[in-house]
Specification:
- InterPro entries: Aminopeptidase_N-like_N_sf, TAF2.
- GO terms for molecular function: chromatin binding; RNA polymerase II general transcription initiation factor activity; transcription cis-regulatory region binding.
- One of its GO terms (biological process) is transcription initiation at RNA polymerase II promoter.
- By secondary structure, the chain is α+β, with helices and mostly antiparallel strands.
- It has an 8-stranded mixed β-sheet. Strands 18-19-20-22-21 form a 5-stranded mixed β-sheet, covered by helices on one side. A 4-stranded antiparallel β-sheet has the order 11-12-17-14, with no helix packed on it.
- The protein has a domain at 251-366: Neutral Protease, domain 2, CATH 1.10.390.10.
- Mean pLDDT is 79; it is low at 5-16, 123-145 and 352-366.
- The chain has helices at residues 85-89, 94-112, 139-147, 270-276, 280-291, 335-365; strands at 20-31, 36-46, 52-55, 61-67, 70-71, 74-76, 117-120, 133-134, 137-138, 149-159, 165-168, 171-174, 195-204, 208-211, 214-220, 227-238, 245-248, 251-254, 261-265, 300-305, 314-317, 320-324.
Length: 366
C-alpha cells in the first residue's frame, strides 16, 4: 500500500478520473473531543479501460483502499499550497499587486482541479477488437460497461481540519465553499459529476446530525457510553459540493402544515423559532404555486445556529439551508415584518432548485 508523499510535478498528475460515480455512500463517526472524523466512503463507479480512477481528497489521512473487497494500490499526494514568492518580488504598485494576486488565485484554482488520489482498479475490462452492434447500440460494450462497475471503498480520517469542516464548542459544521467537499470526504469534487448519496453519521447520544436527503432511521448503539447513528438517503443526483453536515444538540420543530419541512435550532432559540416559522408554510406554498412546480427534494430542513458558529450568513446544501439565529424574532415583532421575513427566507430553498436546474442544464449541454 502506498503512503502519502510529497506533491508530484503537474505533468505527473492525472488530468481527469476517466471514471463516473454512479452512487456514493458515506459512513462517518464524529469525535467532538478530539476534533476528529473517521470512517469510510464507498463509491460505485464505472472504471475506464486504463483501469485507474482519480479522485479528490485533501486534508485527510487515507488508511486503506479496496476495490470489490480486494486491496488496491493507490497513490496520494496532498495538494500543498506553495507560495510563489518570485511573483511578488516584481510588485511595484497596487495595480500590479492586484494582478499578481489574481494570477496566484487563478493558478491555485487550476491546481485544485487536478485529482490527487490515484487508485489502481485491477481486472478492468478492455476491448481488443471491434464488436457487433444490435439495434444501433454496441451490446458487448453495454455488457462490458456493467462488468466495469466497481465498488471502491476508502477508509480515512480527518484530524483537526483547517478547512472544509469546522468544530466550534459542541458543534460541527461543514463548509460549502467551492471545492471543499474533498476536505472532509474523498469524492469526485466536480459539478459535472452527480450521483445519489447514502449518508450515515454517528455522534454522541446527546447530539443530532443533520444532513441532506430524507432521514430514514436512527440507530442507538450498545456502546458505553451509547452513540447514535443518523441514516439519510438522497435519491436526487447531486454533486459532492452540495453535501452538508451539521452536528449540535439541536431541537427540532416539524412543520404542522407541511410534513416535508423541518425547522431546527439550539434550545435557547426554540421559542423564537416557533414564533418565526409560524407563517413559513404559506410562503413555501406560494413559491410552489408561483413557479408551478414542487420542491425538487423529498424534504426540506432549515437550521438556525448562533452567528459565531456560522461560516457565512447563509449556507446552501441539497434539501437544506443554514442561517444565523440572529434573524429569528420573538412575538413582539409586528405582523408585516413577520410576513416579509418568511417570504425572504422561503426564497432560499427555491434558490437551491434554481441552482440545481442550472447545474443540470450546464451538465447536459456539454
Amino acid at each position: 500500500m502506498a503512503k502519502p508523499r510529497k506533491q508530484k510535478n503537474e505533468e505527473q498528475k492525472p488530468e481527469c478520473s476517466g471514471g463516473v460515480v454512479l452512487h456514493q455512500k458515506l459512513c462517518v463517526s464524529i469525535d467532538m473531543v478530539k476534533r476528529r472524523i473517521y470512517g469510510y466512503t464507498e463509491l460505485k463507479m464505472t472504471i475506464p479501460e486504463g483501469g485507474h480512477v482519480a479522485l479528490h481528497a485533501d486534508n485527510m489521512t487515507i488508511t486503506n483502499i479496496s476495490v470489490d473487497g480486494e486491496p488496491a494500490d493507490f497513490e496520494y499526494f496532498p495538494l500543498y499550497q506553495v507560495v510563489e514568492e518570485d511573483r511578488f518580488c516584481s510588485v511595484s504598485c497596487s495595480s500590479s499587486a492586484a494582478n499578481v494576486a489574481c494570477s496566484v488565485y487563478t493558478s491555485s484554482l487550476d491546481k485544485e482541479m487536478v485529482p490527487n488520489l490515484l487508485i489502481a482498479c485491477n481486472g478492468s475490462v478492455k476491448l481488443d477488437q471491434p464488436q457487433e452492434k444490435e439495434n444501433g447500440r454496441n451490446s458487448v460494450q453495454d455488457s462490458c460497461s456493467q462488468q466495469n462497475e466497481k465498488l471502491v471503498r476508502i477508509d480515512y480520517w480527518v484530524d483537526r481540519a483547517e478547512t472544509g469542516i469546522h468544530f466550534v464548542d459542541n458543534a460541527l459544521l461543514t463548509d460549502n465553499q467551492i471545492r471543499r467537499a474533498r476536505c472532509w470526504f474523498p469524492c469526485l469534487d466536480s459539478i459535472s459529476q452527480r450521483c445519489p448519496f447514502d449518508l450515515e453519521f454517528t455522534v454522541d447520544v446527546n447530539l443530532v446530525a443533520v444532513s441532506n436527503g430524507d432521514l430514514h432511521y436512527q440507530v442507538l448503539s450498545k456502546d458505553d457510553p451509547p452513540r447514535k447513528t443518523f441514516v439519510y438517503k438522497l435519491t436526487t443526483p447531486v454533486s459532492a459540493g452540495w453535501i452538508s453536515l451539521i452536528v449540535a444538540p439541536f431541537e427540532i420543530l416539524s412543520d404542522s402544515h407541511n410534513n416535508i419541512i423541518s425547522h431546527i435550532c439550539l434550545p435557547p432559540s426554540f421559542s423564537k423559532l416557533q414564533n418565526t416559522v409560524g407563517f413559513f408554510h404559506n410562503a413555501f406554498s406560494y413559491y410552489e404555486d408561483y413557479l408551478s412546480t414542487s420542491f425538487p427534494f423529498g424534504s426540506y430542513k432549515q437550521i438556525f445556529i448562533p452567528p459565531e458558529l456560522t461560516i457565512s450568513s447563509l449556507s446552501l446544501g441539497a434539501s437544506l439551508c443554514i442561517f444565523g439565529s440572529h434573524i429569528l424574532f420573538d412575538d413582539r415583532v409586528i405582523d408585516q415584518v413577520c410576513y416579509t421575513f418568511n417570504c425572504e427566507i422561503c426564497s432560499f430553498p427555491f434558490k437551491i432548485m434554481f441552482l440545481y436546474r442550472h447545474a443540470c442544464k450546464c451538465f447536459w449541454s456539454t
